[in-house]
Design goal:
By secondary structure, the protein is an alpha/beta fold. It contains 9 helices and 8 strands. It binds iron/sulfur cluster (SF4).
Length: 234
């Protein structure tokens, strides 16, 4: 990941890279999302209502990139994909394919452990109507880039949806025209790093039949076959 270092240095000015991979609770960089966060804190003071940090181990070989926290999912519970339909399908599939162990209980205290993977989002704060603006995606990319920079063993990325795909390519400095998004596609980004695409595992996509559980599992299985068996529960 050395080629990212120069760009990362421009995005992060302080010495502690760990801090830059995960934004603070009151990150002010997206005014619309910060205002939405404040309104949600007032309406639901018991919820997380803050940027949702990545979940997994720093030695992960697979990074899964979603879009953004769901209002009543990760924004409520504080763990990516936890508490809404997308998490039901994602975590069930990860367990079935050996990338997670334990029982998914839709709660950060459920004891579920990831095996060789990490889950993050292209945008760390919940956006209204689940739709971040292109500017918000670009602004939050500094945290995605920092997270990628810290995963020394990252060998595969699974992008859930086109926005995650595009933001990953932008973070890598790769051209979109060379790597068009398509469900089930895989892209050789550089030696030792492959990008896999899936439609997002949202309720909307499954309700409309755009993505079936079987289609989603096939992509995750392909990632597992590409990487070999996860080496340890993490
Ligand atoms: S989306 Fe990202 S950059 Fe924007 S306010 Fe939230 S944490 Fe900060």
């Amino acid at each position: 990941m050395g080629e990212l270092s120069g760009r990362l240095a421009g995005a992060c000015s302080a010495a502690d890279d760990t801090a830059h991979a995960e934004p603070g609770r009151d990150c002010p960089l997206c005014p619309r999302l910060a205002a939405f966060r404040a309104a949600n804190r007032a309406a639901e003071p018991s919820w997380h209502n803050a940027p949702v940090h990545s979940f997994g181990h720093p030695a992960a070989r697979l990074l899964i990139v979603g879009l953004a926290p769901g209002l009543r999912g990760a924004n409520r519970t504080g763990r990516p994909f936890t508490g809404d339909f997308a998490g039901d399908l994602l975590y069930r599939t990860l367990i079935e394919c050996g990338f997670a162990s334990g029982t998914y209980g839709a709660d950060p205290g459920d004891g579920l452990a990831l095996a060789g993977c990490m889950i993050t989002n292209a945008v760390r704060c919940v956006p209204p109507q689940n739709k971040p603006t292109p500017e918000e995606v670009a602004t939050c990319r500094r945290f995605l880039r920092a997270r990628m920079e810290m995963l020394d063993e990252m060998a595969a990325v699974l992008a859930l949806g086109r926005i995650a795909h595009d933001s990953f390519l932008a973070a890598m400095g790769a051209r979109r025209s060379a790597h068009p998004f398509a469900h089930g596609a895989r892209h050789a980004i550089r030696p030792g790093l492959t990008l896999f695409d899936s439609y997002h595992c949202s309720r909307y996509n499954t309700n409309t039949g755009k993505l079936t559980p079987g289609m989603f599992k096939a992509v995750v299985q392909a990632v597992g076959e590409h990487l070999g068996a996860p080496r340890a529960s993490r």
